[in-house]
Amino acid sequence: MSEEEKKRVVALIDMDCFYVQVEERENPGNKGKPACVVQYKKWKGGGIISVNYEARAQGVTRQMRGDEAREKCPDCILYRVPEQRGKADLTRYRDGGKEVIDVMCSFGVCVERASIDEAYIDMTLVVDKMFSDSRATDVDTEVNVEELPNTHFVGWGNETNDVKGVCGWLQALSQGDCNENDWKLTFGAILVERIRAAVYEKTGFRCSAGIANNKMLAKLACGINKPNKQTVLPFRNVQEFFSTFPLKKVRNLGGKLGLALREEFNCTTMADIVQIPERVLQDRFDSKTGTWLYWYARGVDNESVSSRTLPKSIGCNKNFTGLAALDSREKISHWLEELCAEVSERLEKDRETNNRTAKLLTLTVRLEGDIRPYSYTRSIPLTSSYEKVRMANACLAVMGKENPCIKQANTRIPVVVTCLGVSAGKFVDQLENHSRIDRFFVTKQSALTGKGKESCATGQGSMHEINEINENDTDQEVEENELVETELEETKGISEIEEENTTEPERNTANSAPECPEPVSVNREISLPSLNQENRGIANKSGFFASRSLKKSTPIQMPIKEFTSEPVPEIVASQESFSIEELFPDLNEVDMETLALLPLHLQRQVLQAIEARKGSDETDKLVVCDKCKKQLLREEIEEHKDFHLASELQKEFSVQPSASGSLSVNMKGQAVAKKSSKRPLKNQKNIAKETKRSRTIDSFFGNQS
Length: 705
Ligand code: TTP
Fold this sequence. Notes:
Strand order of the largest sheet: 7-8-1-10-11-9
Number of strands: 23
Family: Belongs to the DNA polymerase type-Y family.
Bound molecules: thymidine-5'-triphosphate
Strand content: 15-25%
Number of helices: 29
Cofactor: Mn(2+); Mg(2+)
Catalytic activity: DNA(n) + a 2'-deoxyribonucleoside 5'-triphosphate = DNA(n+1) + diphosphate
EC number: 2.7.7.7
Shape: globular
Subcellular location: Nucleus
Largest sheet: 6 strands, mixed
């Protein structure tokens, strides 16, 4: 544990049975009675998504449906998630979560909103002050057991005898048996008691908390004593605690990494990982991951609490299971409009409240393929207009590009859509946005007439091009969306994705398709930025590997796909001239995605300026790739080589479809490499032959996610 690590004091605060508490606040007469919140679908009483502790005491669990809960506990109140536009409306829960965040912020601590009902706080500065103040006085009198009424210390007394545990801990402190870190954790616990009391006083909500030296430990500690309790995990007790703690419950080890540790190394607890030498972990994973794991198993996690009280993205999605699956352009268009209407409304509210504008719209589509379901995500640059029809049309155009059969009106499409998600992100500060980048994105028509109607150039490919540059983000989005369904505690609400619970059976007639709406007239004149004609000729990289590489290395070239004669969104630069400094005051901080939205001549200018800057102070860091002669930073070259390797492998994949599923089938019936977060699985043959090569590629993908 580094000195720095010792000094951090971090907490995770998690609301207890949050949705039920929100409902109880609306219905105070029901407080103290067993209750659940069920998803709006009515089949068997709806899927339970939150259970209060009174109902849990009577055997009700989240895995049950409303009817089963009633069988177990006849008095159980079932609150139903409100609906709007035919889908769950989480506004009241989101707003409740925001109230809690506001209270936390008033304590001068660094707050990172982690989901709709939980937040990490870094209290180091405040605690340091408490600690130094206490040193100035008589420490023995500083910590009173009454200041820790709901606190437990891991390793001190059993959970049913709180006072003894706390007293034992305080006694050890006063006898000098504890170190500075123990003192600071104790002050952290006092502060969290105050924060939780304030949250209750101001919002009426109860919460639990974990206090430790980092996020991973705080999260673990939080789950130990609930509801309305807090737990300190002193660093000195971590190893003992880990000796029985299942690794799959640890943050970041619930997924593939945890699975590899369980299956290949037979690890079931965190302590089991401690037995594996660092070198072995590095060899199996990669050097960075191996070292990280080595320390993680010892309770060290350096991930910082980043000050973020607003969601990173705003979105919603809807599942269309069984008979409700969307099988026509008209149904898809209808639901895209519904989803975009909600996102647009929330974005407007967000802009008003938070003075920021989203720059990227991400569409997620899941389809029932011929062989198995598959999904893809695409991102579309957003202008400052959050016009719902325009957003929906842009999404539909993207879907038409992916699946041409969707372009046909009144025709049953062969591969049905089972989930649609729309999410906006890449927020920029509005003031900054207006003064710099946004002034560029004036549509031709607006520039001429001042009206909102835009003219479009040809070449839908250009929208695709931008999509690919942003694929990393869209991958992340998909992961978040998908995880919301399966591992909600890890991801829920991070992006404020308004999500349906997916506990419904596959064929749920209650969730039948809506009345098929009248065909929506699709305005093809979409006003979204795209690359101009000049851009189209400059690069020829395409596909999954190319786009992933572009994100990491400087995207001097755009991935270009063939373009069609379809009308496309177009953006033209206004006549106003901008200096590079005005657009990007700090050349060290150029956002390559934003850059990619600019006209090509400006992109070149900015990149040349960056190069020139590098030349002045970083010449020795540049190397030339012997394959493509591109100039790269020294630290980029290895990954860049991986890109070439990956491209070669991609070619192999495309001529040699693998039984392992690295390829999927698109709606045209062609074999394609999947672009979603479900990364191409490894071609087993190649892996057997070239273990070393495949490991490099693995680490390449690992680094991207
Ligand atoms: P959780 O914090 O996982 O659960 P909880 O707050 O209901 O209960 P606990 O006291 O055990 O923390 O989830 C927070 C809210 O997120 C929950 O109240 C409802 C919602 N949610 C879903 O919508 N779907 C889900 O599958 C889960 C797990 C939660």
